[in-house]
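Thread: nicotinamide-adenine-dinucleotide complex, take 2
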Amino acid sequence: MDTNPVIEMLGRRLRLAVIGGGPGSFIGAMHRTAARLDDRYELVAGALSSNPERSRDAAIALGIEPDRAYGDAMTLLDTEAARSDGADVVAIMTPNDSHYAYAMAALDRGFDVICDKPITNTLDEAHEVLARVEETGLVFCLTHNYTGYPMVRQARAMVQDGLLGEIRLVQVEYVQGGKADENDPDPDQGVPWRYDPVRGGPSLVMGDIGTHAHNLVRFVTDLEVVEVAAEVGHIVPGRLVDDYAGALLRFDNGARGSFWVTQAAAGVENSVWFRVSGTRGSLEWLQERPTRLIFKPIDRPAELLTPDGPATLPLSARASRIVRGHPEGFHEGFANIYSDAAEAIAARRADLEPDPLATHFPDALDGVLGVRFVDAAMTSSRSNGAWTDATLDGRT
Ligand SMILES: NC(=O)c1ccc[n+]([C@@H]2O[C@H](COP(=O)([O-])OP(=O)(O)OC[C@H]3O[C@@H](n4cnc5c(N)ncnc54)[C@H](O)[C@@H]3O)[C@@H](O)[C@H]2O)c1
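Output below.
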């Protein structure tokens, strides 16, 4: 990435406003770092907390000018929309129940949008966001950040180039241990938003990490889940929200899959893993070793693929920034999503076409399909794991 396509197209960086991600938020800092890594955005405005004073203080602490450090998100959207030098793009990283209202309000005011997952808590809301994106022609980027890793992009490119043959089997796991403790959440701290189904969505584990796992295998394989047979529930005694889900999957080309996500595996950190097997070979990737993609061809020894190493394909090459062997990880993967979205946004604003390789970031349709998958898995689980339609057409 030696050039800055945003500056080439617009003569300046994109002006970014952030909603959410204030003190205590892990992901807020990831978004802001991602926006800066390739110099395609400048952070100009923020509403970082639901508490007006904390919101303004947090924005000023980031170096945002006091008159653009807002006490609440709607004031930010209204004021920035009215400024001649207002924000171009709004990034939303608030609790899940507010994504819908802020995304719709941002689109209605002409902002391009970057939004964290899940897109919304309900399928109806997700469809409305998608419809508004299509009506307005604005860019909507959903930060399923695992799709930004160079070796995940390499896997997608290898599948697209036919190196695996026809995909037959797909396995995905997202295993964490952060909620293995029976005393989590701390009863003295009230109910955190994630544990409240109205705020966090119908399923804690599916909203938090199930949507990531679903999106990841769709991204790598270009296949859609058409049916799911699932159990979604809690494994920690007494817990009122879901902390694990297991499912078998049927894909639109006839491939079969397995899906396993939990936040209650004691001691496990952030184990995102997939294996995709086709008629000519298999690919395996583990997020905790993100620079290694293992390719097992049917007719020769396994190969270890690395960022920018031999056999790197163009989609992966553009996702890697530094000299071979220097580890790249979460920050860089997240930044790849932001940088590609920036290229698409700048191209839209300059009435140009973006580089086709910059168009692989997750969007509103991916968000709809993620919420649909959660819906179908939960419906299946309520029917004791019955095979359940997961397509948009088959929605009941
Ligand atoms: N992409 C990922 O890997 C990833 C990882 C973690 C969280 N997330 C997503 O990010 C979002 C936030 O999660 P989190 O872990 O940061 O939550 P959090 O509770 O740790 O932080 C939320 C932040 O948003 C602020 N906030 C709350 N309501 C607000 C409002 N109305 N206006 C402005 N600011 C508000 C809070 O003050 C806080 O700073 C969720 O949608 C979650 O699913 C994504």
